[in-house]
Specification:
447 residues, alpha/beta, Rossmann fold, 434 Repressor (Amino-terminal Domain), eight-stranded mixed β-sheet, 54% helix, flat, binds guanosine-5'-diphosphate
């Protein structure tokens, strides 16, 4: 994730402010240095970093904190606001009939992003279609078709044609009934005239409502020049940053956004069609700073619940913060989280779990694999209400009975109980975080 370690290092520096009644220039210098270090490591443009530093310094020293605000909270708030300002607004993507064209270099993640976006639109209740015009890369057609299938969305491509403009034209006609047409284009290892000429011709045919530039988060400052060329050729309305799961960078993409005066539309966080998020500046920065993003989590939970067809779909993330955690809760959450994506990513979004706490957990606490999950479900089916509500009653003889009933080894049953215990302990730690901390984070997120 961009600026991955910013949250923890910054929290450390901010913690030094605890108990102080006023902030000195030196305190601010330390904090700004910490932020600069993280941003530069993430490849953020030096000029942008300088502007941000100046903004934080002058505000922290000149502005008066509102009554009742501690210096620590005040500085955190300024840093948060300035960072939100740095990443900018989210690209406007109206939920209506439209054509979106994707541009970018070879391997940036265009084809993947096209299918992901289609999936995203379909979850918003629209009918999307992917049009694949890349006739240069041999595997593009199959890959695109496969991903569109995975996303359960309409697909148009023509593996026998080598004329992208013609494919685009026919694709538009063939997907007339779709609400949103996402046109994927060819890439190259580097920008060249042929690529630019081709995308200009496709653009002229398709007349897209918006063009999105797809950029690999690991790309450095050269993203800026690349963005400028696409901007000159077709005009860039927004950027999709991909592979945020695999890098601590992302600064190149920010530079591209700045260069083209555009904004960020989507974030790609994995290889499956579901690994996409709409970019939300405040949520993004909250998460980065380890404050979590309840809004995104709630969205994911809702979506997962819809897919699970859960009758008692009244599980709220907030429930995890209170009351006792039974095996029934665990089963519900396993189902929901299975639909939401990797558990550790979900956990990252919960305030307070983002930084540090996760690292204290044994690795396999989060490692609920599909296979184990299925076994766990079968095992739970063989348990009584009493056992599900209160797993502590399950001793050796009950374990033997459940093993016979479920056809699963006793070891698996102990594993399930162990897993439950770990999650329960984790939630207890979470509850122990302190009301004040939690409330403050929530308030900040809502502002
Ligand atoms: P294109 O050449 O621009 O169409 O790029 P592709 O869509 O084929 O993506 C290139 C590679 O990056 C593929 O192996 C994808 O699976 C992978 N990829 C794309 N987006 C992401 C992402 O968000 N996370 C990860 N981990 N891999 C991604």
């Amino acid at each position: 994730m961009v600026l991955d370690d910013l949250g923890s290092s910054l929290r450390g520096t901010l913690d030094d402010l605890r108990g102080k009644s006023r902030i000195s220039e030196e305190d601010i210098e330390d904090i700004v240095k910490e932020i600069q270090r993280s941003l530069l490591q993430a490849d953020v443009d030096v000029g942008l970093v300088q502007d941000l530093s100046d903004g934080i310094k002058s505000r922290a020293l000149d502005e008066e904190p509102p009554a009742g605000t501690t210096p620590r909270d005040w500085v955190l708030r300024i840093v948060y606001e300035e960072l939100v300002d740095l990443v900018g607004e989210s690209t406007e993507i109206p939920l209506e009939n439209q054509t979106i064209m994707l541009a970018g270099l070879y391997g940036s993640g265009k084809t993947t992003t096209a299918a992901k976006m289609a999936w995203w639109f379909s979850k918003k209740g629209l009918r999307p279609a992917v049009i694949q015009t890349d006739t240069d890369r041999p595997g593009a057609y199959d890959q695109s078709k496969q991903m569109a299938d995975n996303a359960e969305v309409e697909f148009y491509g023509d593996e026998d044609s080598n004329d992208p403009v013609e494919i685009a034209r026919e694709g538009l006609a063939a997907t007339e009934d779709a609400d949103v047409r996402i046109v994927d284009t060819a890439g190259r290892d580097g920008l060249n005239e042929e690529l630019i000429d081709q995308i200009e011709r496709i653009g002229a045919e398709v007349q897209p409502d918006r063009n999105l530039l797809v950029i690999d988060a690991a790309m450095g400052q050269s993203a800026k020049d690349q963005a400028q060329e696409f901007e000159d050729a077709i005009g860039i309305d927004g950027v999709a940053i991909t592979k945020l799961d695999g890098t601590a960078k992302g600064g190149g993409a920010l530079a591209a956004v700045d260069q083209t005066d555009s904004t960020i539309a989507f974030l790609g966080t994995g290889e499956t069609v579901k690994d996409i998020e709409r970019f939300e500046p405040s949520g993004f920065i909250s998460r980065l700073l380890g404050m979590g993003d309840l809004k995104q989590l709630t969205e994911r939970v809702e979506r997962a619940m819809e897919e699970t067809g859960e009758e008692e779909g009244d599980w709220e993330p907030e429930d995890m913060m209170e009351g006792s955690f039974t095996l029934k809760d665990m089963r519900k959450q396993m189902e929901a989280m299975n639909n939401m994506g990797p558990l550790d990513q979900v956990m990252d979004m919960i305030p307070g779990l983002g930084g540090g706490l996760m690292d204290q957990l044994p690795d396999d606490a989060m490692d609920v694999t599909q296979e184990r999950m299925r076994d766990f479900e079968v095992i739970m089916d063989s348990m009584t209400e009493e056992e599900l509500e209160n797993p502590r009653v399950v001793g050796q003889s009950r374990t033997e009975r459940i093993a016979r009933g479920s056809g699963k080894p006793e070891e698996r049953i102990r594993e399930l109980l162990q897993q439950h215990k770990q999650m329960d302990q984790m939630l207890n730690q979470f509850q122990g975080m302190g009301e004040g901390d939690m409330e403050r984070m929530m308030q900040q997120m809502q502002q």
